[in-house]
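Saturday, quiet lab. Running sequence design on the structure tokens for the scaffold JK sent over.
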């Protein structure tokens, strides 16, 4: 009789091992490998002599019927999903607990149901009365949505097969479901993988658009969304800080649309409200003429978004100055500071540096380098940037400022919001925008702009190595 084989899986990435080990070789996570239920019998080593069914093959040039996308009426969600939900696709919405995933999908499902689509909501976390109470609070009680509560995948599929397949199915959440053929507990990697595979097979077979909710716990033990990313067609992450009312729905994977597209929402007492112009929202509380503040014209997906980057440089006597970053890459900040020191002659080694992107937005593109550098130099010198100036550009290790893509779209968005000037790299293809452009070719030229404005000041020459710099005057002013 064949012996049962024990297997172990990483809760972070889903990699499997034949024996337990402390560190996952695939993702590098520690203490995340857990034991899965042993297989009942050994699998045969081959397909045998049995024949499978013949798979139809088609040519690349053959035109097939394109299914019509399901539009929910919530523009920001439809934008992030690539223009709507494709029938027969599987869409995953991931995020931290309490961020608003269930509220968003309930509003989306209500919009689709009111548009005449047959919609089913399966809840594995809440009772039907709880979902009904939330719908009443959001003003969605009259939406013709069919509601059910279940955690057994067999029961869910039997219920759906007994009637006409719905147009849209929401499963909230995948971590609560289980397949009764497995002995492991709900939420484990094996159960999440098996339950998702069964539901996706039903969605592809019946042409039902399926929206799956997946979340991670506060201690990070269950990594459902990371395992599911390879199985679903679209992955949307719902991001946001609990201290901010803004929520960002970001597409990190989309087989039917552009990735990195975002939708912006605002959490209100009546649910999530769309923010059609996020640039105006992120800049609505700007203070006039504050040192260390710069407006960055970025691109999120296909949408230009303007946000404020704030920097604070404070003298310190500590041996290791502090570097704190919110909303940007800390490694990128270290590179910009090193380039400003080596190529621009500014010394940040004896000061604490704090950098934040206002409004809870997370910026990842290199085009923000010049705006970050301008905010840092402004905070160091105490010279504020003009309030009607936008900045973008990429900084190289040589200290040069390089052009970035979509410059015309960035400038048009800035002109639409009332900005009159822009600090851009040389050779920028601007197009028609109506802004006054000022080019900046290097970080040394950027530093000269602030030093000339502040008046005479000593600055370290990067070629001579003289140690006197502008921090002496800044330290005297703070003292």
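Result came back. Writing it out in full:
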């Amino acid at each position: 009789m064949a012996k049962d084989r024990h297997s172990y899986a990483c809760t972070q990435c889903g990699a499997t091992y034949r024996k337990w080990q402390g560190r996952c070789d695939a993702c590098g996570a520690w203490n995340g490998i857990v034991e899965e239920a042993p297989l009942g019998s050994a699998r045969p080593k081959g397909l045998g002599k049995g024949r499978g069914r013949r798979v139809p093959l088609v040519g690349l040039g053959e035109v097939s019927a394109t299914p019509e996308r399901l539009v929910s009426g919530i523009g920001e969600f439809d934008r992030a999903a690539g223009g709507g939900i494709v029938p027969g696709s599987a869409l995953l919405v991931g995020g931290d607990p309490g961020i608003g995933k269930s509220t968003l999908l309930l509003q989306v499902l209500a919009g689709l149901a009111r548009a005449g689509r047959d919609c089913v909501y399966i809840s594995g976390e809440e009772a039907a009365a709880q979902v009904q109470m939330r719908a009443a609070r959001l003003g969605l009680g009259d939406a013709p949505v069919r509601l059910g509560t279940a955690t057994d995948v067999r029961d869910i599929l039997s219920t759906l097969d007994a009637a006409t397949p719905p147009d849209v199915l929401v499963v909230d959440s995948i971590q609560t479901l289980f397949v009764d053929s497995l002995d492991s507990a709900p939420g484990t990697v094996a159960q999440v993988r098996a339950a998702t595979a069964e539901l996706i097979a039903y969605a592809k077979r019946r042409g039902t658009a399926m929206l799956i909710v997946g979340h991670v716990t506060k201690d990070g033990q269950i990594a459902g969304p990371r395992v599911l990313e390879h199985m679903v067609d679209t992955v949307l992450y719902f991001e946001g800080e609990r201290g901010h009312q803004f929520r960002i729905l970001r597409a990190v994977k989309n087989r039917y649309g552009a990735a990195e597209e975002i939708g912006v929402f605002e959490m209100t007492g009546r649910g999530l409200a769309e923010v059609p112009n996020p640039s105006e929202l992120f800049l609505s509380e700007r203070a006039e003429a504050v040192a260390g503040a710069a407006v960055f014209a970025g691109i999120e997906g296909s949408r230009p978004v303007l946000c404020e980057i704030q920097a604070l440089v404070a003298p310190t006597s500590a041996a290791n100055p502090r570097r704190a970053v919110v909303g940007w890459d800390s490694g990128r900040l270290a590179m910009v500071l090193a380039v400003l020191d080596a190529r621009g002659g500014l010394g940040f080694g004896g000061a604490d540096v704090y950098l934040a992107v206002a409004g809870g937005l997370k910026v990842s593109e290199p085009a923000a380098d010049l705006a970050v550098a301008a905010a840092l130099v402004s905070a160091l010198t105490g010279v504020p940037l003009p309030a009607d100036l936008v900045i973008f550009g990429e900084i190289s290790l040589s200290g040069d400022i390089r052009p970035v893509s979509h410059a015309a779209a960035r400038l048009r968005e800035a002109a639409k919001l009332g900005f009159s000037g822009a600090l851009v790299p040389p050779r920028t293809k601007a197009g028609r925008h109506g802004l006054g452009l000022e080019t900046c070719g290097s970080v040394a030229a950027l530093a000269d702009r602030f030093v000339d404005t502040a008046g005479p000041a000593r600055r370290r020459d990067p070629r001579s190595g003289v140690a006197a710099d502008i921090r002496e005057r800044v330290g005297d002013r703070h003292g």
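Notes for JK: The first strand starts at residue 7 and ends at 10. Residues 39-44, 219-223, 454-479 have pLDDT under 50 and may be disordered. Ask whether to fix the surface positions before the next round.
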